[in-house]
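Entry 14. Ran structure prediction on the chain below.
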Amino acid sequence: MKFVIIIPDGAADIPIPELGDRTPFEAARMPNLARLASVGKVGCVHTTPPGFEAGSDVCSMSLLGYDPRRYHTGRAPLEAAALGLNLRCREWIFRLNFVTTGQPGTPDDGLMLDHSAGAISDEEARILVVDLVAHWRLIEPESAPDFTLHPGISYRNILIDSSGRSYAGLSTTPPHAIPREPWSKHLPEGSEAEAGVLTRLMLGSIPFFAAHPVNLARLAAGKRPASMAWIWGQGTKPEVPSFQSRFGLRGAMITSVDLLAGIASYIGWDRLPVPGLTSYHDTDYAGQGTATCDAIDRYDLVCSHIEAPDEMSHQGDWESKVASLEAIDEYVVGPVIKRLLEYGDPEANARDVGWRLLILPDHFTLCSTRKHDATPVPFVMAGAWVRAMVERPMSEQGSQESDLVIAEGHELMEYFLRSGRRDVRAGRKGSA
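Output, structure tokens:
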């Protein structure tokens, strides 16, 4: 059996007045998704466990079959794994965003404007990383040498503290969770030993970035500058059993973001690089579709993650969110269905390999608030031995009306891989 999961990140939403009070899923022209819903099952799944906030780290771990309550130690360690960083048990790892904040003397003074610093380029971000570290060593000579800063993709960076100090009592806030809110109210909270040094590093970046040539050039070009380094998402190295040891399948991940690649690394999947992938609507959807189809031949399970709907939601850009869903349907979902059909139907011919396809967002991201939301997400599942008694649309409303509800998000994977199959025993659940 061949398995494919397609994740349009943050695609779920609430009705938008400009779309005639429809959600982007309902407004987008997605004939391939509609076709799957007509022959498969539509349901909803709780990807955010109680006590957690809705985020791609928690929700993606959940939908890939790993209970965040057991395996989630923080977002940053997952992204660090994608960079190939050799993490040690006593190190604390942080995510560091280059963000844009409102400038003094403007109506936006003191507000968090953009968690991505205007989608700053890799090249610009790498220059800022090197220069910021040198600046920190000047202003914080006692603590700064304990930190190393590693560039990721665009605005995303990883900060590691190797001093041995603990941040177990620290509370931080993702910058994408406070759009147009006063950022000073969301600085790290904790003891002086925990929050104090991080706050000084963050605040120390502001005057330095204001005069940096990279930012001056961005302002001259009409782009948003990286006006501050924002530290959050702390955690330590997790211990995670491999996917193959739990489910007996070899997997691969296609994604443009380090977070999903990091999760893939921990569970023993290969990351398949695809030129032209970005986190925005300028990504190469066709290239991602082709790469996904090619990977089906070589792996038991392929996960194809597309970040664009989430980033468009964080920008409040509902038009581009709809366009991204339409592109995903045309260039990823359509070709994948065509390729999977080549593996036949074991219900009709026992010698056929067969297939199953699962499509779902990891969480809601609302264009209206530009924030994540923990509402259970819709999913559609189709393929061998997957049949529904009632046909429903693949949408937020359609899923809420379904009686197929997965209350524990990490159990969706076993349901996807094993439910209703007549070619193998369902077996007991993975012991991980």
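Confidence is low (pLDDT under 50) at residues 426-432. Will compare against last week's run tomorrow.
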